[in-house]
Amino acid sequence: MPPVEVLLVICGAGPLKDVTELISQVLARGWNVQAMATPSAVDIGLDIGAVREQTGRLVVTSPAVPRIAITPDVIVVAPATVNTITKLALDIRDTYPATVLGQAVAACIPMVILPSIKKVDLDRAIFRMHVQSLRGEGVHLLLGGSNGIHPTNDSTKNGPLPPFPWHLAVSATATCLEARKSYASKHLAKFASPWGLIALTTAIIIIIRFKK
Fold it and tell me: In whole angstroms, what is the distance from residue 168 CA to residue 7 CA?
C-alpha cells in the first residue's frame, strides 16, 4: 500500500514559525507531506526553504508549482486563521489555496483544520455559524471540546503563549484516515459476498451493453 499523502496548508498565523514541528510529527507517522502556503503565510515570513528541505518537496504557492498528489488522502490546514475559515465556509476562492480547499470540500476529501484564533473571535455569531457550516460538510474543525484547541485572549505582552497543540491535528488526521479505511473495508466486504459479486457482475454487464 502506498504511503499516505498529506497536503498541509499553512496560513498566516503566528504559530507558523514552528510549523516544522507539525511536519516532523506527520513524517514520524510514515506519511508523505507537501506544504502549500497562503499569500499571508509567505508575507509574514514562512521559512519556505526549511519546509522544502524537511518535506523533500516544493512548497506550493501558486498553480505554477507542481503538486505531487493532485488528490491527497487528507488535507491539514494549520495554523488556520479566521480569514481562511470564513472564506472556506463562504466558498470564496480568491487565492490558489482557497480554491484548492473549496474544491476539496466539494470532493469530500478528508480535511482537518487546527485554528489559531483568539477567544474574542468566537464572540462573532457569524463566525460560530461558519464553524457549524463547515462541520456540517464533514470538515474536522478542531475548536473547543476535549479534542480541540481552546482560544485565548492572552498576548505575548503578558508573557509567552502556551505551545501550539500541533499534536491535535496529527491525532485527528490519523482518526480520519482510520475511519476512511474502515469504511472502504466495510464496503469491499459487501462486494466479497456472493450477492455482492452478483450485483457487481450485473452492473459490469449493463455498462458493457450500454457502451455497445
Answer: 16
> For the chain, what is the domain count?
1
Tell me the average pLDDT across 169-173: 97
**What pTM did the predictor assign?**
0.84
Helices 166-192 & 19-28 angle (0-180, nearest 10)? 30
pLDDT tens-digit map of 136-156: 999 999 998 878 888 866 544
Write out the residue range of the structural domain in which residue 38 sits: 5-211
In angstroms, rounded to a whole number, what is the distance separating the alpha carbons of residues 150 and 116?
A: 9
202 CB neighbour count, 10 Å cutoff: 10
For residue 50, the domain's CATH number is 3.40.50.1950
Q: Are 5 and 15 in contact (CB under 8 A)?
A: no
Task: Give pLDDT tens digits for 24-40.
Answer: 999 999 999 999 999 99
